[in-house]
């Protein structure tokens, strides 16, 4: 753990970090709890005044130093990420660049936190609006994007003048600790960033109760997000939630099918389907369903599954046994309700690692678990629809609202459907929409607030109105 500028915790019980490709123990990290959680808030609170009083330029300079060090270490960090999370090295390298783009983008955005003056009703008054950093921020992050889910929070928080306490997922702590190490090397003052590894319930309980923590930003499952939202209410913390998704991928009869197939494979099987905005269900208009399904199946059959450190691997292992079991359950359920497995469908290399074949199931419908629950694995169910209004209704019929995808070459259809979809992110002929400069977040039970873009820094600011009478 990195708390108060010190590497701590060797005296504590240790947690094994497992490589999902071969189930080998690759490291051990301290199992921190309430005491360490409080120490981290003590440190972040101590540092807040000095850090928030630096100029935006001074903070920007230090963030760019951090960005440079991350860039210089991205290959080493990508390998570390593949070993602790499983994604293929080429994807891990891509995540390092994506993660680092939040540091550089917010290093600049922090210099554009503008206030305003408002015309007064009284000539002897002046009305000013200032934006100020919210204070100590608690960040809790998931295992599927071990670098990006941290920098997407810490980048804007530090740029805004906040200090942070971070709890990474137990499965992927090494990337988080490396980011902290490079922040220290970059000269970001000690106590500004604190990383606590260990018991999520014990750590979050302390942070939720501590009134010095003024913001909770969480990325993870909707279930845990709801728990944390309730806990944050006791001290009325600002809260951002990036939660689960259930993305529909809609293929209209006038879509470019080759473009759609390329996009759905990228969206669905990136990170072995363990991505919040990955396609969870495919809807194809009736007249092109057979052609699309054949093209998609051919592309999926060609995907290479294996250890992400090996050359030419497209799909790595899943994070753990539980994740594999969920995909098996969804496949079996779909088949029991009339689904037809046209490729994949089986666990792979069972004794070796947590692998599952990239799988396509046709004849899917909403009676199936995979058409309602987040699979979070390499399973693509294909359902057929007849009319535009029907597919919009079916796509929206879910508590989730994170991402949706529409493929059509008709601009009127594209605008009509995109505007009716109840989702925070719509990929229109685009399967990979995520970039640092755009707002990322969901409707309904997929979350609150946005990360990325100028929206993302507002989450770490308070608005102060100063009325001046003279
Ligand atoms: N919307 C997004 O941007 C986004 C991004 C990535 C993942 N996700 C979602 O996250 C989920 C997968 O990630 P996961 O399995 O790590 O989610 P998770 O909710 O199980 O865990 C996320 C984090 O919360 C911690 N946690 C777990 N239980 C907790 C508790 N009771 N109290 C406090 N903290 C707790 C974990 O240790 C981890 O750090 C999926 O639903 C996925 O859609 C969403
Ligand atoms: O899984 C969640 C990530 O936010 C996905 S993305 O890399 O930001 O698209």
How do the strands and helices of this protein lay out in sequence?
Blueprint: E1 2-3, E2 6-7, E3 14-19, E4 24-30, H1 34-53, H2 56-72, H3 74-85, H4 89-109, E5 116-118, E6 125-133, E7 136-140, H5 148-160, E8 163-167, H6 173-186, E9 193-195, H7 200-209, E10 213-219, H8 222-232, E11 238-242, E12 247-251, H9 257-269, E13 279-285, H10 289-301, H11 321-336, E14 340-343, E15 347-348, E16 355-356, E17 359-362, E18 379-385, H12 388-396, E19 403-407, H13 411-420, E20 425-428, E21 447-448, H14 453-458, E22 461-469
Parallel strand pairs: 7-8, 7-10, 8-9, 10-11, 12-13, 12-19, 13-18, 17-18, 19-20
Antiparallel strand pairs: 1-2, 3-4, 5-6, 6-22, 11-21, 14-17, 15-16
Helix pairs in contact: 1-7, 2-4, 2-5, 2-6, 3-4, 3-6, 4-5, 9-10
Bound molecules: nicotinamide-adenine-dinucleotide and ligand LB4VBGO6.
Please provide a brief summary of the model:
The protein has 470 residues and is an alpha/beta fold. It contains 14 helices and 22 strands. The strands form six sheets. The chain has a seven-stranded mixed beta sheet with strand order 14-17-18-13-12-19-20, sandwiched between helices. Strands 9-8-7-10-11-21 form a six-stranded mixed beta sheet, sandwiched between helices. It has a three-stranded antiparallel beta sheet with strand order 5-6-22, with no helix packed on it.
